[in-house]
Amino acid sequence: MKKVIYILFAILGIATACTDTAAIDEWQQKAANLEAELAEAKAQLANAGPTDHTFVHNVYFWLKEGITAEEEKAFLTGLVSLKGIESIGQFYYGPPAGTPRDVVDNSYDYALSIHFKDKAAQDAYQVDPTHLAFVEKLADSWRKVQVYDNTLMGD
């Protein structure tokens, strides 16, 4: 951005040094075009934010009633095995935080939150053999699963 500003000053300096009004008009138009391009680039950056392409995959599990401690341990081991999938950026899991408010649903047993670089990375995760094996082997552990996918935006 500093380079663009220096270029603008250089163009304006050259333009004011010229005695030919046609040349001055041409340089002023070029400067105006550069200013417009700079403003557009700034607007795009402001709207995009640095995390615009982050894809978050949130999964909530309600385990079956009467599940044994051993079965729950196998479920958690399988859940943690997902962390090894190459396309994953960040990986978090855990039980509800126990925040008793009307707007909070604490009825699930475990939540999984995985951050990916983009949707393509999440698509790769969906067909990864480790993920497929987790679902195939442990789907009988839960009575309900709910997924919320979102992209992160911000500054």
Explain what the structure shows.
This protein is of the alpha+beta class and 155 residues long. The protein has 2 domains: 2-48; 54-152, 2-Layer Sandwich (Alpha-Beta Plaits), CATH 3.30.70. Helix content is 49%, strand content 23%. The chain is built from 5 helices and 4 strands. It has helices at 2-17, 21-48, 69-81, 119-127, 129-138, and strands at residues 54-63, 88-94, 110-116, 142-152. It has a 4-stranded antiparallel sheet. Helix 1 packs antiparallel against helix 2 and helix 3 runs antiparallel to helix 5 (129-138). The longest helix has 28 residues, at 21-48. The chain is elongated, with a radius of gyration of 27 Å.
Quick structural overview:
By secondary structure, the chain is of the alpha+beta class. The chain is built from five helices and four strands. The protein folds into two domains: 2-48; 54-152, Alpha-Beta Plaits, CATH 3.30.70.100.
Overall tally of structural domains: 2
Architecture (CATH level 2) name of the largest domain? 2-Layer Sandwich
- Proportion in helices: 40-55%
Compute the gyration radius: what is it? 27 Å
CA-to-CA gap between the ends?
18 Å
Q: Write down the CATH class of the largest domain.
A: Alpha Beta
Element order: H for helix, E for strand = HHEHEEHHE
State the main characteristics:
49% helix, alpha+beta, 2 domains, 4-stranded antiparallel sheet, Alpha-Beta Plaits, 155 residues
